[in-house]
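Lab notebook, bench 4. The sequencing result for the construct came back, and we need a structural model before the next group meeting so we can plan mutations. Quick request posted to the team channel:

Model the 3D structure of this chain.
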Amino acid sequence: MSTQLKLRGGTTAEHSTFTGAVREVTVDTDKNTIVVHDGTTAGGHPLALETAGAVPDPLVLTSITGTTVTGTTVDAATTLTINNWTVTESGGALYFSTGGANLMKLDAAGNLDVVGNVNTNQTIS
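Done. Here's the predicted structure in token form:
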């Protein structure tokens, strides 16, 4: 006879107020996904379904503090936006733009094209 494992479960709303034990695993019955708990975070950490993809598109972040990233938009295809700057990959080159204008292009050969002045031997602080 086989052994069956049955995990505790509940709705997304129920999970939002539940703080499970460290390494406890539950099932979110609304999202049909597993939730891993750390003993401190209400709602735990839902795991993505294979059909949902590992990273939302676009992934939205807001700032980087130590190892915590929040406030930046990362389009899974080719674009990274940080505040007023956008970095786009196209045809093997990176384009750096702000205010809707491309200001720099770095190609795969290492060539850098710049709109405006290039200061050399400067200290950046």
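The chain has two domains: 9-52, 59-112.
Will bring this to the meeting.
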